Inverse folding.
């Protein structure tokens, strides 16, 4: 990393020259990538960052010409052979040549390891498949190679596990196997398309280490596509910033992070949530908006004692305990952050509070109603007092109803208004409250962007002025710049209205910005519980420490130290 | 009304959106099932769809205007003067497609037959679609034992041949030989029994998929009643695949009706014209070299089934983005899609890090990134 000055002048492995890609869609032709040029030097990690729709995946796929039939390309992609014996003009290749190039010169690692591995073949067979496709026949040799590569990517006990099926591995191990499949042919270039997005943050750190190994030990170049600035800071030597199909900035990682030139890069970096960064909201006159009074004096809105939730097991299998005897309280006008990895039971807890999930044991009191064994008839009046914001802005609205009809739904169900026409004025006010134009109420959900939909979703949740709001990963599906705006809006509304809020997320930095207190969940239990600042600065539980250390910091120099801390922590125990 | 002030896209204290034009979006007409597909179809898929639509529309028109098109009634065997039609006469000026062994005019019978066919389709589809959709909704949404029982019954019905059921129905309803409505009801009900499971299965699968989606859960959190969730949220969102099954079942209904008629369980010739019956009567004619009594009703059956099937199959292909053909753009053109990113968003003024980034002037650095410092 010390020779960044020399790196771009060294021989380039791949060169993308004035690449343009168009797609024919139902709505006419769409240009996904326009005049993109950059180079991938040998033995470096190039990070392509950008938000959704910026054309970063299309660019990477063009490098191995893995585009659908409806795509048309212009420009050129020159790929040098690994042994330096010549150059390939990828976009002009077809058929057999293309097949031979894929895998042996450049391989791809996809986002979702579950859908990449074929569930009916052993992983060994799938790794060998790539070798067979490139002309290796000897069975013993194939197997030896598969075992060897599995060892290298850190699958323990590779000799036996080579015969296992994909479902016998965890998500992180599956992604290791996918990377092993890419590495086994020893390609010069590995294209990793959001390789860690579907993974938990602790697993993400391991996969990033593995990709670093691909560069250091296998001498491959890695092109990593991501929307996560922390991942780029952790792994990349060079950064390409894309925005709306164009490259707006490229340079080495230090230059892009510390001295960005393009305004978009600056805004992107500014929107990334960081631990220890306070979120302050002001009204039009510039006064800081704060809550009235101290939340610690407020009455209790939700109280759980020994709350247990189990999912019934399938035939002959034991029940699955999703939440295992947890205790917590949530006071009016308090924001409680609930953090954990996938499968920790955090969403289940939130759903139980909203009455979407049956409580199996212990006690859960929501606004004075005992949820263990509650009847819908008794809980229904309380529902007007509870709002819920869902994770996926794409599916949280009925696609056949307009925004006005969707937002007015709780108002009509609870008899505040007789029909949508009557509620229009109030719905308009609600939309303005979440900073959406009034006229959007006549639109259909798909006509709004993800961030706008999530704001409308907030408007629906707050329509009945609830005293309790449950937000289940409300910003996880959003791009960072949009996320920043939604979080700000959220903070503003919370301070103004003063609802109690359970904020469920996997992102510690987001929790740090919003929450008064934090609960960390792991495998159905709460491992740590306390004031946000205490937990972020002085975590006590080893799991919380690991979680915090695994979170990549969007700052390359800091991240280098941060990574060493993580390794030290892992070495301890 | 409030509409005029509401059509301005603005947020108080935010002037960015004032110049934004609100586009009206596609009209309601272009969202109708077949019209929508016609717009996205290209190439041979469009040709198939258009051909199917033309054939189907032709038969519907013939059915509606049968009294104007047909020179004689369907059971007429004498002309206005009371003179009996010749039997088995070859095509001539009076009887352009000839006459049958019973003295019916083949052209008139074929034209009137279209009317019977169209009524049979409507009856069969109407009977099965409501029950099937309702059961599918209930079964998919509630699950549990209702679902299991309904699925088992549906599977059992699948194993019945539909023609056998139709014959049973025909005998039950009218003792074999029947009137216009009797024959149509027999074929309609037998089709209904066989096709309820199809609608049931499709709707059930869709409902099971959507019922876990966030907007249904959102309705539950809000406290919407089960009835409201089922009618407002689930019903309309689960009927997207119906047009396809509907068209395919329509052609099956015609074939069953014709099959019944051919086997002698159809409609009396004096009650209505029916192609299957006409085909049955012409079996003996074919060996005697009399071709006109068999060819025209037979062709009519083939064509109407072909037309409806073409529509159904192309709707099926078009509904699936993977099967849908698209033009190639040819060259790299087109507008760049708007991303979800809001380009003009300014960072929070209280974020010190963001402010330090934004205040740094681009001019202070050389545009060439390589010269940027490296500690």
């Amino acid at each position: 990393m010390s020779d960044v000055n020399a790196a771009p002048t060294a021989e380039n492995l791949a060169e993308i020259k004035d690449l343009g890609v168009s797609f024919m869609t139902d709505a006419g032709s769409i240009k996904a990538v326009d005049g993109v040029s950059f180079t991938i030097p040998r033995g470096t990690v190039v990070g392509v960052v950008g938000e959704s729709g910026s054309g970063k995946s299309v660019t990477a796929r063009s490098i191995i010409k893995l585009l659908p039939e409806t795509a048309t390309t212009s420009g050129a992609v020159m790929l040098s052979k690994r042994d330096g014996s010549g150059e390939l003009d990828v976009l002009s290749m077809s058929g057999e040549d293309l097949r031979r190039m894929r895998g042996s010169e450049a391989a791809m690692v996809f986002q979702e390891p579950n859908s990449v591995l074929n569930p009916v073949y052993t992983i060994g067979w799938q790794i060998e498949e790539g070798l067979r496709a490139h002309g290796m026949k000897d069975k013993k040799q194939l197997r030896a190679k598969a075992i060897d590569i599995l060892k290298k990517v850190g699958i323990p006990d590779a000799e036996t596990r080579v015969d296992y099926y994909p479902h016998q591995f965890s998500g992180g191990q599956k992604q290791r196997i996918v990377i092993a499949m890419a590495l086994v042919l020893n390609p010069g270039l590995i294209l990793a398309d959001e390789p860690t997005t579907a993974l938990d943050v602790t697993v993400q750190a391991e996969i990033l280490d593995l990709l670093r190994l691909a560069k250091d030990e296998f001498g491959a170049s890695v092109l990593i596509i991501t929307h996560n600035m922390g991942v780029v800071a952790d792994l990349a030597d060079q950064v390409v910033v894309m925005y709306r199909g164009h490259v707006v900035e490229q340079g080495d990682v230090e230059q892009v992070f510390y001295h960005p030139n393009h305004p978009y890069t600056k805004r992107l970096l500014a929107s990334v949530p960081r631990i220890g960064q306070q979120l302050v909201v002001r009204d039009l006159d510039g006064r800081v908006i704060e809550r009235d009074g101290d939340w610690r004096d407020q009455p209790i809105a939700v109280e759980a004692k020994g709350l247990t939730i189990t999912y019934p097991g399938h035939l002959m299998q034991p029940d699955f305990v999703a939440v295992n005897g947890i205790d917590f309280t949530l006071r009016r006008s308090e924001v409680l952050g609930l953090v954990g990895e996938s499968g920790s039971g955090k969403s289940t807890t939130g759903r139980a509070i909203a009455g979407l999930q049956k409580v199996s044991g212990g006690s859960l009191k929501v606004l004075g109603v005992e949820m263990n064994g509650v009847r819908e008839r008794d809980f229904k009046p309380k529902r007007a007092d509870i709002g819920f914001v869902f994770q996926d802005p794409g599916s949280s609205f009925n696609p056949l109803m307009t925004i006005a009809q969707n937002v007015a739904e709780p108002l009509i169900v609870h008899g505040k208004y007789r029909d949508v026409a009557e509620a229009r004025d109030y719905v308009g006010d609600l939309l303005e409250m979440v900073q959406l134009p009034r006229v959007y109420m006549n639109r259909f959900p798909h006509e709004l962007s993800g961030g706008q939909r999530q704001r409308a979703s907030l408007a629906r949740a707050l329509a009945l002025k609830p005293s309790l709001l449950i937000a289940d990963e409300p910003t996880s599906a959003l791009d960072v710049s949009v996320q920043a705006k939604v979080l700000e809006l959220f903070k503003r509304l919370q301070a103004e209205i003063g609802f109690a809020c359970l904020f469920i997320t996997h992102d510690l930095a987001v929790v740090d910005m919003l929450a008064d207190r934090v609960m960390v969940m792991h495998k159905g239990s709460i491992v740590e519980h306390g004031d946000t600042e205490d937990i972020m600065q002085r975590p006590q539980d080893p799991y919380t420490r690991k979680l915090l250390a695994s979170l990549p910091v969007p700052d390359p120099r800091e991240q280098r130290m941060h990574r060493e801390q993580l390794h030290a922590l892992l070495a301890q125990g | 009304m409030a509409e005029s002030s509401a059509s301005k896209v603005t947020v108080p204290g935010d002037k960015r959106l004032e110049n934004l034009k609100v586009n009206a979006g596609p009209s309601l007409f272009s969202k109708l099932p077949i019209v929508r597909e016609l717009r996205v179809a290209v190439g041979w898929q469009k040709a198939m769809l258009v051909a199917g639509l033309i054939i189907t529309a032709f038969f519907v028109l013939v059915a509606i205007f049968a009294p104007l098109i047909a020179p004689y009634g369907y059971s007429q065997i004498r002309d206005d003067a009371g003179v009996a039609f010749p039997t088995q006469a070859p095509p001539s000026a009076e009887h352009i497609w000839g006459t049958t062994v019973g003295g019916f005019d083949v052209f008139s019978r074929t034209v009137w037959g279209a009317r019977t066919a169209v009524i049979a389709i409507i009856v069969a589809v109407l009977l099965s679609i409501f029950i099937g959709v309702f059961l599918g909704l209930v079964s998919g949404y509630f699950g549990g034992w209702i679902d299991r029982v309904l699925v088992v019954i549906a599977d059992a019905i699948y194993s019945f041949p539909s023609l056998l059921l139709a014959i049973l129905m025909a005998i039950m309803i009218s003792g074999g030989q029947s009137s216009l409505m009797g024959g149509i009801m027999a074929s309609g009900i037998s089709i209904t029994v066989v096709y309820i499971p199809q609608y049931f299965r499709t709707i059930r699968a869709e409902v099971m998929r959507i019922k876990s989606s966030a907007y249904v859960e959102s309705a539950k959190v809000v406290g919407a009643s089960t009835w409201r969730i089922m009618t407002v949220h689930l019903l309309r969102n689960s009927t997207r695949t119906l047009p396809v099954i509907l068209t395919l079942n329509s052609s099956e209904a015609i074939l069953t009706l014709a099959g019944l008629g051919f086997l002698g369980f159809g409609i009396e010739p004096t009650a209505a014209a029916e192609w299957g019956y006409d085909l049955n009567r012409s079996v003996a004619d074919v060996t005697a070299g009399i071709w006109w009594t068999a060819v025209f009703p037979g062709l009519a059956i083939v064509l109407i089934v072909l037309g409806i099937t073409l529509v159904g199959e192309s709707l099926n292909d078009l509904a699936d983005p993977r099967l849908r053909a698209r033009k190639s753009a040819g060259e790299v053109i087109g507008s760049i899609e708007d991303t979800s990113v809001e380009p003009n968003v300014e960072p929070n003024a209280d974020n010190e890090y963001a402010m330090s980034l934004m205040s740094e002037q681009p001019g202070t650095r050389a545009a060439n990134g390589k010269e940027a410092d490296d500690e």
Notes: Residues 333-356+376-568 of chain A form a domain with the Rossmann fold fold (CATH 3.40.50.300).
